[in-house]
Amino acid sequence: MTSVEPGSAEPRRPHAAALPLLDADAIRLGPWLAETADADAEALARLHADPAGMRYWSTEPWTPGDRDRAEAYLDAIDAGAREGDLLQFAARRSGEAALVGWVTLYRIDRTHRRAEIGYLLDTVLWGRGLGRRMVDLALDHAFGTLGLHKIEADVDPRNVTSCRLLEGLGFQREGLLRQRWRTGGELQDSAIYGLVADERRA
Length: 202
Ligand SMILES: CC(C)(COP(=O)(O)OP(=O)(O)OC[C@H]1O[C@@H](n2cnc3c(N)ncnc32)[C@H](O)[C@@H]1OP(=O)(O)O)[C@@H](O)C(=O)NCCC(=O)NCCS
Known about the structure:
Layout: E1 22-24, E2 27-30, H1 37-47, H2 67-83, E3 86-93, E4 99-109, E5 114-121, H3 130-145, E6 150-155, H4 160-168, E7 172-183, E8 186-196, H5 197-201
Parallel strand pairs: 5-6
Antiparallel strand pairs: 1-2, 2-3, 3-4, 4-5, 6-8, 7-8
Bound molecules: coenzyme A.
The site of coenzyme A has 22 residues, from strand 5, helix 3, strand 6 and helix 4.
């Protein structure tokens, strides 16, 4: 595995330089890197084509190997970052270059100091606490560096792991929006979670 040290690698696109490298035990978040751009696009296409990983998503799994879609996805990340309403971190194992997931802060609203959070981790790594650690790192950035007051999440209530992850980080379930998404012919509810800055500090 190639090692990517903090500060030694080129960000994939200029905006990514705004993202710091955040480290937790065994997982880290950071920018999309120029030197891993091809491998990242390939990994994104694989992660988003995994039916288990996409089970409760509001879109259907991608067609396996859809590199064009991965590139378009990365372009959308750039556009969101340029507009200032989206920041997406690449997640990698500590000391390794391979992309294993991502965490996104989106609908970043500077006026109300609020954003939503989404995340995905490679299914082969599930159940080891890595998901919680990477979301925790992104929350540090959201409440600390960005100075946000509230983070919200929209989760299918059947997605027990994601609900437990959020609850373990102090999120409260604030409500249920019924039959909000139609994915692959299936209607999905949204459990709306929220975490405010005071609760985070506590
Ligand atoms: C959500 C996700 C990131 C969790 O990653 P993970 O590394 O497996 O999660 P963790 O190991 O940190 O565990 C988080 C919590 O879920 C629990 N958990 C883990 N696997 C579980 C399982 N199979 N069933 C029930 N609970 C489970 C853990 O015990 C922990 O809760 P606890 O602290 O109360 O014990 C991962 O499942 C994922 O990428 N899912 C697909 C994408 C997705 O659904 N994203 C969320 C959309 S809003």
